[in-house]
UniProtKB/TrEMBL annotation, chain A:
It comes from the Eukaryota. The lineage of its organism: Eukaryota, Fungi, Dikarya, Basidiomycota, Wallemiomycotina. It comes from Wallemia ichthyophaga. Residues 292-351 are annotated as: Disordered. One of its GO terms (cellular component) is cytoplasm. ATP binds at residues 18-26, 41-42. This is [RNA-polymerase]-subunit kinase.
Automatic annotation (TrEMBL), chain B:
This is Cyclin-like domain-containing protein. It comes from the Eukaryota. The keyword Transcription regulation does not apply. Keywords: Cyclin. PANTHER family: CYCLIN. It comes from Wallemia ichthyophaga. One of its GO terms (biological process) is regulation of transcription by RNA polymerase II. Residues 248-320 are annotated as: Disordered.
Length: 351, 381
């Protein structure tokens, strides 16, 4: 095994550092043999009281299992000294950078193409009984051929047995579904679909759709945009652990805000942002909606808009020392590399 | 990248482990493995580790010693590290300090008991800063990396238990039947059958063996009435038993129905049903089948000493079900090998069950070239 490990290690060269976080550094490198560019995620160990960080364990475990065109590929794993190194395919940009690049113009077919690739990646995870739990534009990486890949499985987990308690502190706040904000401890693949809905809206609007400043404000933002849910619409939500009553906002038709989107796009958006998680659409069914078969056809990936500038060193989300409840900081980490938000985010809200 | 089937070993490999190569006898190896698993389960149960993590931990342990020798890697420390890693990989972390303190505490209380004196410390966590605990903790953390490397970072394990739960439900068995099966599954972790057979065969062992080892009073009438000779009960596991004969190339294609119970999260209906259950926080025996039967099938066909390689050429007309049952028979025999290492009273109980075990085995087809000497093993406990 040691020889095998050394052999794998020798297969790759580590070049410049492209990212740094508390639990890992990312390097750009090459496969010596093939010249293929790779990203090497070096997990720091020995810093944590409990050995290897749980996010690293999750990432290794799930990426070993998942092989799909729209999921980031782990090419190898090796350990060097007291470090764990994940060799990942090198991806040049991410959807967040593309959305933010104001010089790019999105055609309807472009958005459809990104959505289809996202949903295919998410569908593959769900078919393999894996919840991603941190979908956001920043975690949808894109390679030089325009192919989008779901990445960062540091918060992923197996679909649990019904009734098993899981932490509700997952998913970056703006993409977090209402059931988690209300403290649901048992949830399903539907949580990822809500995030996909938010990403879709963000692609259409070119700005985050539901940017709440804290957890309470997040719910308020959601309800202001989509109407406060009635018991009939989402049975049982009033008995969730952290349920609180909100102002009664009326339901506004999605068409009003997304005036440029066609009816088929509105249908997809509405089904992803459905309040009742039991009725929220699955990734597989979403891909079969008319939106994806109607004109215009999804843009072929190589023809999708891509940013002119190189991928900047990407701040990695800082990681908590313990496994439990380490996800809140992920949302906080989000603010860390969005300094423009930090001020408002720290504001205390007495809703 | 690790191959999917790197963890299914041939009989040859199971008999010639690194420890045996380094001079340990096969029976000593089995004894040491059982000691390690017992230690793992004892600490794990005290630390309230979930049963899925316990199962994975035991499997990591057995896999580790297919690549490393018992002589070079301390059994208890490895067992403890497997437990630690499995909890982490199952998203149910236990702190290294807690496990290390518990292990040292148990050792001390064993010694104290043996010497007939009272324990000085009352709580494991009271001793967490003592040198013994700190040392063990450091050893566990460095062992973690060795373990990960040896397992080639392949941590996902397919569990047999969800298969059992699904089958029991479709046959409308009682809760206690399933409890008995779970108990057999727990005991099976001491044996190394999961190194040789896919989760489906391990599930079949746990499913059938209660009929031979459990007190009949605890078993439901429905379960006791299952006719093991009639392969139809295998249908509950999604195995197609309608075709009597298939062609010689038993690739399992038609032999296993693509999971009648496979719960694709992508299917709308399924997802909804599962969701509603979860949202209401309904507990009970409902388990989500982590892997679809399609995968089980693929896994099964991957087995190196599968029918294609091992079946004598003059019997080319066995069904997939037939091969499954031959493997189940072998696996039960290998499971029975651990009995003679168990405590005396447990052994005595199994002794009494010998006739029932033999009767159950006779319901299953026998592999002609099996390397596991059935009569000898049954006679040994």
């Amino acid at each position: 095994m040691e020889q095998l490990n050394t052999a794998i290690m020798k297969r790759y060269s580590k070049e410049r550092k492209v990212g740094e976080g508390t639990y890992a550094s990312v390097y750009q490198g090459h496969c010596v043999e093939t010249g293929r560019m790779v990203a090497i995620k070096k997990i720091k160990i020995g810093q944590f009281k409990d050995g290897l960080d749980m996010s690293a364990i999750r990432e290794v475990k799930f990426l070993q299992e998942l092989k799909h065109e729209n999921v980031i590929e782990m090419l190898d794993v090796f350990s060097a000294k007291q470090n764990l190194n994940l060799v990942l395919e090198f991806l040049t940009t991410d959807l967040e950078l593309i959305i933010k690049d104001r010089s790019l113009i999105f055609r309807p077919g472009d958005i459809k193409s990104w959505m289809a690739m996202t949903l295919r990646g998410v569908d593959w995870c769900h078919r393999n009984f894996i919840l991603h739990r941190d979908l956001k534009p920043n975690n949808l990486l894109i390679n030089d051929k325009g192919i989008l890949k779901v990445a960062d499985f540091g918060l992923a987990r197996d679909v649990a047995d019904p009734g098993m308690k899981m932490t509700c502190q997952v998913i970056t706040r703006w993409y977090r579904p209402p059931e988690l904000l209300f403290g649901a401890r048992a949830y399903s693949s539907a949580v990822d679909i809500w995030s996909v809905g938010c990403i879709f809206a963000e692609l259409l609007l070119r700005t985050p759709y539901l940017p709440g400043e804290n957890d309470i404000e997040q719910l308020n933002t959601i309800f202001r945009a989509l109407g406060t849910p009635k018991e009939s619409e989402w049975p049982g939500h009033t008995s969730l652990p952290s349920y609180i009553k909100f102002q009664d906002y009326p339901k506004q038709p999605l068409e009003d805000l997304f005036s440029a989107a066609g009816n088929d796009a509105i249908e997809l958006l509405g089904k992803c942002l459905h309040y009742n998680p039991h009725e929220r659409i699955s990734a597989g069914s979403a891909l079969r909606l008319p939106y994806f078969s109607n004109q215009p056809k999804p843009t072929p990936p190589p023809l999708l808009p891509k940013p002119l500038k190189e991928l900047e060193p990407r701040a990695l989300p800082p990681d908590a020392v313990t496994g439990q409840g380490n996800n809140k900081r992920k949302a906080d980490g989000e603010q860390d590399h969005k300094p423009d938000l930090r001020k408002v985010a720290r504001k205390i809200d007495f809703q | 990248m690790a191959r999917r089937d790197q963890w299914i070993f041939s009989d040859e490999e199971v008999l010639h482990t690194p420890s045996v190569a380094a001079g340990l006898s096969a029976s000593d190896e089995l004894r040491d493995r059982i000691r390690g698993v017992n230690w793992l389960l004892r600490i794990g149960v005290t630390a309230r580790v979930r049963s899925d993590s316990l199962y994975n931990a035991c499997l990591y342990f057995h896999r580790f010693y297919m690549r490393k020798s018992l002589q070079q890697h301390d059994v208890e420390q490895t067992a403890l590290t497997c437990l630690f890693l499995a909890c982490k990989a199952q998203d149910a972390m236990k702190h290294v300090t807690q496990l290390a303190a518990l292990a040292v505490f148990k050792h001390r209380s064993d010694t104290a008991k043996a010497q007939g004196r009272a324990m000085r410390d009352k709580e494991p966590m009271h001793i967490k800063d003592e040198p013994d605990v700190v040392r063990l903790q450091e050893n566990m953390l460095s062992c973690e990396i060795t373990l990960l490397r040896t397992l080639t970072f392949d941590l996902a394990v397919r569990q047999p238990f969800p298969l059992i739960v699904d089958a029991a439900r479709s046959l409308q068995l009682k809760r206690f039947d399933v409890v008995m099966m779970h108990a057999v599954l727990n005991d099976s972790m001491r044996s190394n059958i999961a190194l040789s057979y896919p989760p489906l065969v391990v599930a079949l062992v746990a499913f059938t063996l209660p009929s031979a080892v459990a007190d009949e009073a605890y078993l439901s009438g429905t379960y006791r009435d299952i006719n093991w000779q009639d392969q139809r009960w295998l249908g509950a596991f999604g195995v197609d038993v309608s075709a009597d004969v298939s062609d010689g190339h038993d690739n399992g294609d038609q032999a296993l129905q693509p999971g009648k119970r496979s719960r694709s999260v992508s299917g709308d209906g399924d997802a909804t049903a599962n969701n509603s259950k979860r949202m209401k926080g309904e507990s009970g025996s409902g388990h989500t089948n982590v892997h679809s039967s399609q995968e089980v099938k693929a896994d099964y066909t991957d087995r190196p000493n599968d029918a294609n390689n091992n079946a004598p050429s003059h019997t080319p007309t066995h069904t997939h079900a037939h091969h499954l049952l031959m493997d189940t028979r072998d696996a039960i025999i290998r499971f029975a090998m651990i009995f003679r290492y168990l405590d005396r009273d447990v052994r005595a109980r199994q002794q009494a069950n010998k006739g029932r075990i033999a009767a159950l085995l006779s319901c299953f087809p026998k592999r002609h070239d099996s390397v596991w000497a059935e009569d000898e093993i049954l006679g040994s406990f």
